[in-house]
Amino acid sequence: MNSRHIRRIQILAILVVMVAASATALYAQTYTVLYNFGSVRCDPLNPQVSGIIAQGRDGNLYSSTPGGGCDVNGVAFKITSKGKLSVVHSFQLNVGGDGIGPQSGLTLGTDGDFWGTTEGEDFNAGNIFKMTAAGKITNFDNAFGGTNDVDGFAPFAPPVQGMDGNFYGMTTAGGNRSKCTYGDAGCGVIYKFTPSGKFKVIWTFDQTNGGNPAGPLVLGTDGNFYGTTELGGTFGKIFENAGVVFKVTPSGKYTVLHAFCSQTNCTDGANPLGGLGQGADGNFYGTTEYGGTGTGGLRQGVVFKITPTGKFSVLYNFCSVTSCTDGSNPFGGLVQATDGNFYGTTVAGGANDLGTIFQITPKGKHTILHSFENTTGSLFGQEPEVALIQNTNGILYGDTYSGGNAGAGYGVFFSFNMNLKPFVSMVAWYGKVGQTIEILGQGLTGTTAVSFNGTAATTFTAVSDTYLTAVVPSGTTPGLVTVTTTGGTLTSNRKFMVQPYIASFNPTSGTVGTQVTIAGTSFTGATKVTFGGVKAVKFAVDSDIQITATVPTGAKTGTIQVTTPGGTATSATDFTVTQ
Prior knowledge:
By secondary structure, the chain is mostly beta strands.
C-alpha cells in the first residue's frame, strides 16, 4: 500500500471526506507548468507531503518522490528554473544499501549535500541518507528500528540542521507502542543525527503530548526546534486527538505550545500535516487539514499563528465561502516570501475543487491566486501537497500530486511568478565572527562587496554565479546581508543572527561579588550573564568584545554564559566560585 494512504488511514477510517462543489475555472496568468511528471521512463511520480523542495548551490531545485524511478522505488531529482528535469538518483531495492520510498524531499546542509529519508529496504524501519548534487548517495541504514522499533520508523520528513551542526528530525511511527491507543505502530520519535552517522532519540511521542508527525521540524531563531504532530493531544476525540504544536530543545526538553481542538467544535483547527514557518516577526505560522469554522461537517482547515511562548490565533478559516472556492484542506506548510506575505496551497476547494494557491498576510488577509483545474489531459496539475519554495530569482515553485498530461496524471512541477525581485539566501542564517557563511543567489559572478548589516566583509569569494562564501566580519550585528553585483545589490530574505563567543574570562575564580571581565565577540545587546546557571544581577556591556559582570549571590562553579539576540555563548572552561 502507498505510504501516503497508510499514513492517512487512521483518520480516514473515522472521517467522511467532504467534497466541495465545482465552480468556474480560474487561471492565474503567472502560473506556468514547467514539467509533467511521468513524461519519460524513470521519471518522478506523484510528489506528496512532506516532499520538501530545496535550492542547491547551483541554483537548481532538488526534491524527491516516493514513486517513480527506474525500479519504481522512488527518485531524487533536480529541475532548473526553466523546467529542465534530471533524475539525480533512482532508488533501487537491495542495491548498495539504498532505501525505498523517499517521501521526505530534501534539505541542503552546510556541507553542500542534500539530506533526506527513505522508508528503508524491504519496508524496514527506514534510512537517513545524504546525497551530492551529482547523485552519489551515502546511506545511514542503522538509524531507525531497534527492539520493537523504539528508535522510530517511517520518517516522512527530511532532517534539518541545527546550530550545533547536527541534524534533527522525526518519524511518524515507532517509539513506545504502548502509548498510542489508536494503533500498535507507535506515535513516533524526535531524533538527533550527527553528520558522521551517530543516532540518538531525544524525545518519544506518547499521544497525550502529540503523536505521528508528518511535517518537518523548523529551527527557530532561539536555537530550538518547533513542529507539529498530525495526531495526539488531549481534545479532538473524533480526530484522534487533533494534533499539537510543540517546541523541543536540542537536548530533548519538550513543550506542548498548543493542543488543537481545545476550542469547541475544533474551531482552532485540527490535524496539522505540514511543518511550521517562522516569520520575520518571530512568530510561527502553519496550517491544519481540518477544523475551523468553514462550511462542511468536518470543517476544512485553518491558517494559524503561534508565538514562541504559545499564544495561538486563527488567521483564516478555509471554506468560508460558497462551495469552498477559497480552498480547503491544506496539506503543506507556508513560505514567507520577500514581500512579507505567506504563500501556500490547498489540495481541495477552489473554483474546481482541485486545490488552490493562496496568499495570506501576517494579519490574516487571504487571497486566492490560482485554482487548479481539470482540462483535457489534466494539463495544469491537481492536488498540491508539498509546501512552496521561493527561489532566489524571486519566483515561487511547487508541484502537484496528480494531474498533468503524462497520461496517468502523475503530477506537475510548476512556477508561480509574483514579480518579486531576486534576492540572496543564506544556507545557515546564523554564525560567529570569523566564520565562513554560504550564500545562494543569481548573478554573483563579479561580486564587488558583501555586507552584514552594514559591516563590510573583507573576505568573500564568488565560487560560481549562484554561490558565494563570505567571512563574518568583526563588529557585525544582527541584520540583513547585502551582496553588490554588476547587476545591482541583492538583499537577503531574512536577518543574519550573529552568535556570541566567549574567548576567555579573568579572573578564573573568585567569591560572590568578584568583578569578572569576559572577553569575546558579538556581545552587543547582551541580555543575560550567568555563572553556573545563576543569573548575574549586575553586568555591563563595555563593548562588542567585552563584558564586565559581578559574581551573583548563589553562583555555582560552572560555565559562564552570555545571552544576546544572536544566541547564547558558553565558556569552554568553568569559573570556580570560592568561599
